């Protein structure tokens, strides 16, 4: 089981690869769209990459609830 | 003949000979071939294992995250258009975005994206298909990306007429300015299909050279030993501008885009009309549109792709429509055939030949076809006093486009 810190840093890697987000900017309180400038198409890529990396399923109707990095970390922590 | 004059104020390109216009032009004048072996694993089983690949990879120029959302053809289009835009010095001149249009095409479109994403679909299922797939493969993608980058708001047009696309996109740009729909048009074309399926498709048509053991000598327009075209990739962009608009801002002017002619053969889906009737009409139309006669055209950058039939039909056409005096060249002997982008790149070559008074060579013309009865700048660049130059582009589907450029 990955810790919250490990999940956050895993997401940071994905965000850097997919959307060019600086890993130093990734923190639990950051909003994907407002703070990290991840657009809707890139968010789709982030979700698919996260599913693969953490072995979880993130249904489309869940994605809209993942506003911040912390929301995603919590979902992954609870479901992987 | 129109009363609105249109001039060329900027040029941009990324080609098998260089990452910009200056390096490409130097290589063309030096007679350098951009053709080489295809060393990719997939090429091993194909009958054609040579191509003219880009000299400078887009990844060296465009930032990684931006590049992964673009098809290769879109990236090349953007590189060429940005160079042309900077070259024209239009940034910060207060140009009204609603008077800036884009006319930029591609012969085939985002084929590499389509094929790569199909591989992902087959191997990993639909969820792994990139959400950027559609904007990457749509044929208007290159024009749209340029429009987005430059903020063009007078319409973004995407021409598609196979190997005549680049020239036809320039012709449309001329129309847009003459009709008063724009003051400035970014015109050109892009092509990136060096990939096993398009290569296999052209090879199955027996349209391509199979001189795999001697890549630099494979593209040999008008030579007796020619055995088909060599596939190239790249993009070319021209900034077309209403002449009084360019004069008002003191712009450097390369040439006048004096006339264009567009016809269709109505003959065969891929075979050129052996009598070049459509080509002749296009050339005559362009010359008349420019207010000139055949004798005024001193140089023709020919379509001449190095195929057995097409090369000689065009010679007959030029003789009929222009005369026996122009000095010809086929820069495809060095760049390979850039398909949809050919007309844009070759327009640039014709414009620079006008400006510099020097015609780039046709390399590999060692043993000219007996029917070649016009003068060609064979082997070495040729100096010449050129007042008007023509570019011909013909495409599958029976498209014929001729453009006439005159000295500024």
Automatic annotation (TrEMBL), chain A:
One of its GO terms (molecular function) is acyl carrier activity. 4'-phosphopantetheine is transferred from CoA to a specific serine of apo-ACP by acpS. 4'-phosphopantetheine is transferred from CoA to a specific serine of apo-ACP by AcpS. This modification is essential for activity because fatty acids are bound in thioester linkage to the sulfhydryl of the prosthetic group. PANTHER family: ACYL CARRIER PROTEIN, CARRIER DOMAIN-CONTAINING PROTEIN. It is found in: Cytoplasm. Carrier of the growing fatty acid chain in fatty acid biosynthesis. GO terms for cellular component: cytosol; membrane. The modification O-(pantetheine 4'-phosphoryl)serine is found at residue 40. Residues 5-80 form the Carrier domain. Keywords: Cytoplasm, Fatty acid biosynthesis, Fatty acid metabolism, Lipid biosynthesis, Lipid metabolism, Phosphopantetheine, Phosphoprotein. Its main location: cytoplasm. Pfam families: PP-binding. Signal peptide: none annotated. Pathway: Lipid metabolism; fatty acid biosynthesis. This is Acyl carrier protein. GO terms for biological process: lipid A biosynthetic process. It comes from the Bacteria. SUPFAM superfamilies: ACP-like. It comes from Actinoplanes campanulatus. The keyword Lipid biosynthesis applies. Belongs to the acyl carrier protein (ACP) family.
UniProtKB/TrEMBL annotation, chain B:
Keywords: Acyltransferase, Fatty acid biosynthesis, Fatty acid metabolism, Lipid biosynthesis, Lipid metabolism, Transferase. Residues 3-407 form the Ketosynthase family 3 (KS3) domain. It is an enzyme of class 2 (transferase). The keyword Acyltransferase applies. SUPFAM superfamilies: Thiolase-like. Gene3D superfamilies: 3.40.47.10. It catalyses: a fatty acyl-[ACP] + malonyl-[ACP] + H(+) = a 3-oxoacyl-[ACP] + holo-[ACP] + CO2; (9Z)-hexadecenoyl-[ACP] + malonyl-[ACP] + H(+) = 3-oxo-(11Z)-octadecenoyl-[ACP] + holo-[ACP] + CO2. InterPro entries: 3-oxoacyl-ACP_synth-2, Beta-ketoacyl_synthase, Ketoacyl_synth_C, Ketoacyl_synth_N, PKS_Beta-ketoAc_synthase_dom, Thiolase-like. GO terms for molecular function: 3-oxoacyl-[acyl-carrier-protein] synthase activity. It holds the Pfam family ketoacyl-synt. The keyword Methyltransferase does not apply. Pathway: Lipid metabolism; fatty acid biosynthesis. Transmembrane segments: none annotated. Its EC number is 2.3.1.179. Belongs to the thiolase-like superfamily. Beta-ketoacyl-ACP synthases family. PANTHER family: 3-OXOACYL-[ACYL-CARRIER-PROTEIN] SYNTHASE, MITOCHONDRIAL, POLYKETIDE SYNTHASE-RELATED. Involved in the type II fatty acid elongation cycle. Catalyzes the elongation of a wide range of acyl-ACP by the addition of two carbons from malonyl-ACP to an acyl acceptor. Can efficiently catalyze the conversion of palmitoleoyl-ACP (cis-hexadec-9-enoyl-ACP) to cis-vaccenoyl-ACP (cis-octadec-11-enoyl-ACP), an essential step in the thermal regulation of fatty acid composition. NCBIfam families: fabF, PRK07314.1. This is 3-oxoacyl-[acyl-carrier-protein] synthase 2. It comes from Actinoplanes sandaracinus. The gene is fabF.
């Amino acid at each position: 089981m990955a810790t919250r810190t490990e999940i956050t840093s895993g997401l940071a890697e994905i965000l850097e690869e997919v959307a060019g987000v600086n890993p130093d900017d990734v923190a639990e309180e950051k909003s994907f769209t407002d703070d990290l400038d991840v657009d809707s198409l890139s968010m789709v890529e982030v979700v698919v990459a996260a599913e693969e990396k953490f072995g979880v399923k993130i249904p489309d109707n869940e994605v809209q609830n993942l506003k911040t990095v912390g929301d995603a970390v919590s979902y992954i922590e609870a479901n992987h | 003949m129109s009363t609105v004059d249109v001039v060329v104020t900027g040029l941009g390109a990324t080609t098998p000979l260089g990452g910009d216009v200056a390096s490409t032009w130097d290589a063309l004048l030096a007679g350098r071939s951009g053709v080489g072996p295809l060393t990719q694993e997939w090429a091993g089983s194909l009958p054609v294992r040579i191509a003219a690949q880009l000299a400078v990879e887009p990844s060296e120029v465009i930032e990684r995250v931006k590049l992964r959302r673009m098809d290769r053809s879109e990236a090349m289009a953007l590189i060429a258009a940005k160079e042309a835009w900077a070259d024209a010095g239009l940034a910060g001149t207060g140009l009204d975005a609603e008077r800036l249009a884009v006319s930029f095409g591609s012969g085939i479109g985002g084929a590499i994206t389509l094929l790569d994403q199909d591989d992902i679909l087959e191997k990993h299922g639909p969820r792994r298909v990139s959400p950027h797939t559609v904007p990457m493969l749509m044929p208007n993608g290159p024009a749209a990306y340029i429009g987005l980058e430059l903020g063009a708001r007078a319409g973004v047009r995407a021409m598609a007429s196979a190997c005549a696309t680049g020239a036809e996109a320039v012709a449309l740009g001329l129309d847009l300015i003459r009709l008063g729909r724009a003051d400035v048009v970014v015109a050109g074309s892009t092509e990136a299909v060096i990939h096993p399926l398009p290569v296999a498709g052209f090879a199955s048509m027996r349209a391509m050279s199979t001189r795999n053991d001697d890549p630099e000598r494979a593209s040999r327009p008008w030579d007796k030993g020619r055995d088909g075209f060599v596939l190239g990739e790249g993009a070319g962009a021209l900034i077309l501008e209403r002449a009084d608009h360019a004069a008002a801002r003191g712009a450097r002017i390369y040439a006048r885009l004096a006339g264009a002619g567009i016809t269709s053969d109505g003959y065969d889906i891929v075979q050129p009309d052996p009598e070049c009737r459509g080509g002749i009409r296009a050339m005559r139309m362009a010359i008349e549109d420019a207010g000139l006669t055949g004798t005024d055209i001193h140089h023709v950058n020919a379509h001449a792709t190095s195929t057995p039939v097409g090369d000689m039909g065009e010679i007959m056409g030029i003789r009929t429509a222009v005369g026996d005096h122009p000095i010809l060249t086929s820069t495809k002997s060095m760049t390979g055939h850039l398909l949809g982008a050919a007309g844009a790149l070759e327009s640039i070559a014709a414009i620079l030949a006008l400006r510099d008074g020097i015609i780039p060579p046709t390399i590999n013309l060692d043993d000219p076809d007996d029917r070649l009865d016009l003068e060609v700048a064979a082997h070495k660049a040729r100096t010449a006093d050129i007042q008007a130059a023509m570019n011909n582009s013909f495409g599958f589907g029976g498209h014929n486009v001729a453009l006439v450029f005159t000295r500024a």
